[in-house]
Design brief:
The chain has eight helices and eight strands; from the N terminus they run H-H-H-H-H-E-E-E-E-E-E-E-E-H-H-H. With 267 residues, the chain is α+β, with helices and mostly antiparallel strands. Helix 6 crosses helix 7.
Length: 267
């Protein structure tokens, strides 16, 4: 879209677009690694890769810094940059945007009081990957580790935050006020069927298809929240002095990260 409308003039960004966001990310990564870092930089007098190597390995005149340590838990680094929510833990678990999540790891914190205000419920940090909201990540205050928390109804299909926003906007436009989890996933199934039927016909449908998490799933009946089993309230023994543990993320919703938005090249 250029820097401003005057510079763009009559350029038709929509017509000239060629790549999806995923394709553009691959193109940009290839350029940075195999072109930009390899060619001489006017300010450095050499390529960025060579300058980096000199700083790390050193030169005859200047000792290097040595190899930087790698994070022991790369997933935790990734999660620290994800959007987060503050939520209290209820008997059903945690709810974000009318979608409920539960795992026994939450049991010790059900209806926990705020340490600084006993009359208020304690809120906890919960991270969510916009690409796939079939699970969230609960930051355990005892040891600072993240635990993956799946849907309370694990039979529900994965979806992206973009899809959820579209569903909410669609239901609001229909005048629906009592939006609950059952209605959300019922609408998701209907909208996906519409996309499937038109994906080969229009550019808009092609863009929308790329936003759906590519995770195979079998169709299942969506149970109303009232029919779901209540989680156990038995609290596990406390673990004082517990050491940091890596994020365990081997649940069935695990999948490679894919873009949930799609933009068009415009230059």
């Amino acid at each position: 879209t250029f820097s401003n409308t005057r510079q763009r003039k009559g350029y038709n960004s929509e017509k000239e677009a060629a790549l999806t966001l995923k394709e553009f990310e691959q193109h940009l990564l290839d350029f940075i690694v195999n072109v930009y870092h390899q060619r001489p930089h006017s300010e450095l007098g050499m390529s960025p890769l060579r300058k980096w190597s000199q700083g790390v390995v050193g030169t005859p005149e200047q000792p290097g810094t040595g190899t930087m340590p790698l994070p022991s838990d790369p997933l935790k680094v990734k999660l620290d940059f994800m959007p987060y929510f503050l939520r209290s833990v209820q008997q059903y678990g945690i709810q974000i945007d009318n979608v409920s999540y539960y795992d026994p790891v939450l049991d010790p914190y059900i209806n926990a009081a705020d340490p600084e205000n006993p009359k208020a419920k304690r809120e906890f940090v919960v991270r969510r990957d916009p690409n796939n909201i079939a699970k969230v990540y609960f930051l355990d205050p005892r040891d600072g580790s993240y635990s993956p928390i799946p849907y309370r109804n694990i039979g529900l299909p994965a979806m992206s935050a973009w899809e959820l926003r579209e569903i909410q906007a669609h239901l609001k436009a229909e005048g629906r006020k009592d939006i609950d989890e059952h209605l959300i996933f019922e609408t998701l199934e209907r909208m996906r069927k519409q996309v499937d039927s038109s994906v080969a016909k229009t550019k808009a449908a092609r863009r929308q298809q790329t936003r759906i998490p590519q995770i195979p799933s079998k169709p299942v009946a969506v149970l109303p929240s009232s029919e779901l089993p209540r989680p156990s309230l038995i609290l596990p023994p406390s673990s004082p002095g517990k050491t940091l543990r890596p994020v365990v993320d081997d649940d069935p919703f695990d999948a490679p990260i894919v873009p949930y938005e799609e933009v068009l090249l415009t230059r």
